[in-house]
Amino acid sequence: MPNYLINKEKTDGRYNEVHTTTCNHLPEYANRYDLGFHLNGNDAVAYAKRIGFTDADGCYYCCSEAHKG
Ligand SMILES: [Zn+2]
Predict the structure, then answer these.
(1) pTM score of the predicted model
(2) How far, in Å, from the CA of 10 to the mean position of ligand 1?
(3) What angle do CA 16, 45, 2 make, to 5 degrees?
(4) Ligand 1 centre and the CA of 4: distance in Å?
(5) In a structure prediction context, what are the per-residue pLDDT tens digits for the chain, which is 69 residues long?
(6) Are 66 and 57 in contact, with CB atoms under 8 Å apart?
């Protein structure tokens, strides 16, 4: 099960992007918030929304199944 994190800073001022910790497109350390382990990107995005990141969206590269934006 992959470990996920979210970018606390919105991409294009619209989305908080969710990544696996092994993604090549991770945000700066200061902007990372650890989401823990999840089954897949959809699960990680749903969790992020539950904890307050209502504009969470999957990264195009590592969470394509959850990428909407
Ligand atoms: Zn990513």
Answers:
(1) 0.95
(2) 14
(3) 110
(4) 9
(5) 999 999 999 988 999 999 999 999 999 999 999 999 999 999 999 999 999 999 999 999 999 999 997
(6) yes
